């Protein structure tokens, strides 16, 4: 018999809960242990038939009216009108006492008095046995109530007057067990026992409905939310008992509270129980128990932050963490109980157990988002923010120096220039802000954090040297960021300077000068001789005009960190480039994981300011920790808000760290491809020599097809650098290293940035793997390799160990820990592992053909003489196209 379907799959198909299906299966004498149990075709078919049959039958629900009296009411599966019966029922049936935490439930109330009034028990009519005959749809022919005295007699009656009592469609809540579950269970079982006896005396009476409402073992079943939480209640108590003084207990208690808060009806039941104590339980049970209807999806909600620990998720769903982990493994996610999974993964896995995941958490947006968008009339032009990039020694520092010295604001002349990583210069045509940090860090690091502060890049290329490695790198970084480039051809004063050669070389990289029909602005300069500097600045401003850079200075200040450090005397200080609004001394702010209050604002001349507006680079003091370059600096209402945001971010960061995930991997690319979302595979290719680099790029480019495209966002020779990692991180790229290795520091950065680096030393292997990735075939196939066979000659029962087989190896060999299958007359009886392998009394690693040995099978004792143990190995094999 082959296992085709799992219980949970079938329950999904039938649209009922696992619990209900398990009842149904048990009713059919199909023994299943949990929602993960497998069903054969026949069993599945039987279950379907039974379900179809049952779904046409009216079900019976039990409810305890008062101590010793339980009402059994037969109800239609057909949806009944709600309002009318509700009113009638409530008015007519005062004896039922709904709990204080629950509104009176009409369907409960209605039949009660009728049932109570029924003095004479009678056997149900044929209608109970042939439910198909029951006419559906009308309110008048609905329920049949049965009153049972717990003390003995079973009374099931199809009294017409009762039948007329209207029924309200039971809500999802109604099916959820309440406190005092155990009591009820006992009582129900007791009743059943007695009923069986009395039935024997009277007439044969099938009671399929009774089965439906019997309670499953919550530990084994997939729980509906309510039982889950009831068990959480218990768990909480036992936890509190066990770990009274531990933090975990508090944490768990908090989670339980959280779970309850997300399901207010639970809180009600808990409260009710508290007030009423044990006596109140009976009343709680008067809530109708309808188990034939799956619990509403809305009730099965789990609210989580960015990520959640497996243990917490399992607890919130009221299932065992092991079950959750098993399902995760099934999805290919390896996680331990203490690891966190992100909200998306949690959503998928929770869906398997019938729960929805809702992302919640403190929403900082409420505090950060501007109340209203900037109006056009509020926007004022702002200076461009420029980054100077280029190859080593091509003159970046010299150029910035000459610009700064000759263009500092007159008022500031004489001031001592501070190194704050950014400078504000004034030219006759306008103001420009220069970022004086290594280009890549200046914006690639920021971009990796989702920030972009640079409006323009000045690419410095020495006229005597031409385009070099870092020139290319700078071009790629700028292109990836979508920032326009102005080229400064430097050192034109030098002998051997050939600006045209630079133009030609840059044109090959897509930077075609305007005079050649392109759109890149070129300026010939000499930083040393101060030639062409003003023209360069003019061109920069011209280009900036095209960009129409504007910002609203009259709002709360927002900016980004350019650089930050810990100062001995002043604590954490950072250069902030204000991008919009104005910051003031005394403002509370949040920045990355940190918060603070602005204690001092200094400009690049070291002058104290009271405030700073858009595109102003300033040094800010007052941070509670050192932020990272690229972190967003936002002024908030007050320090309390700032702290709250910072705390929330720190919490999320912790969860993210726990959920450790690589930003982008080939496997992820594959997964994404399955959903047809990602069609571009971004690569950064670094190789040892130019020759191999060209060969690799050629080969990779040839792989690009209509459906999946390869985008080499950067390539170069030499070691993998931090800037490569930052670029890859910012562009969701994978780094390909050919005959190159990263330094330990770069490795650290890659780890921090969660960038995947793949190393190769053979081109065709590199190409093949990328090809595999692109064709979605990288997932390895599992291949079986035969190891050997042994025949069982004798079996021994060893106490506490189980059956041990004395075998003779007849082919190949037996290897300890190998996978094995037990064959009896050529039929596989068992597949698993060898758990011991001995020669005489010694444990051995393997036994060759022709030798005898003793062996045991893991968790299997039914070994017989003559059985064959076949050992094999499973090896992963990469698939090829
Ligand atoms: N002849 C000439 N030499 C220049 C010019 N600009 C810079 N240099 C020289 O080139 C050398 C390198 O200049 P830097 O400004 O340090 O170059 P850099 O690009 O900042 O170098 P790194 O900071 O190492 O990346 C220095 O010796 C400068 O004097 C120029 O326009 N003409």
Give the SSE map.
Elements: E1 5-6, H1 7-14, H2 18-27, E2 38-39, H3 41-56, E3 59-66, E4 69-75, H4 83-92, H5 106-117, H6 126-129, E5 144-149, E6 154-156, H7 160-164, H8 181-201, H9 208-213, H10 225-242, H11 247-261, H12 264-276, H13 279-285, E7 301-304, E8 307-309, H14 310-317, H15 321-330, E9 340-342, H16 343-352, E10 356-359, H17 365-368, E11 380-381, E12 385-390, H18 396-407, E13 422-427, E14 430-435, H19 439-448, E15 456-462, H20 469-481, E16 485-490, H21 499-508, E17 521-524, H22 533-547, E18 550-551, E19 558-567, E20 571-580, E21 583-584, E22 588-591, E23 594-602, E24 608-609, E25 611-612, E26 617-623, E27 632-636, H23 639-658, H24 666-674, E28 680-687, H25 690-703, E29 709-717, H26 722-730, E30 734-738, H27 744-753, E31 757-760, H28 763-775, E32 781-798, E33 802-815, E34 819-824, E35 827-839, E36 842-843, E37 846-848, E38 852-857, E39 868-877
Parallel strand pairs: 7-10, 12-14, 12-15, 15-16, 16-17, 28-29, 28-30, 30-31
Antiparallel strand pairs: 1-2, 3-4, 4-5, 5-6, 8-9, 11-18, 13-14, 19-20, 19-27, 20-26, 21-25, 22-23, 22-27, 23-24, 23-26, 32-33, 32-39, 33-37, 33-38, 34-35, 34-39, 35-36, 35-38
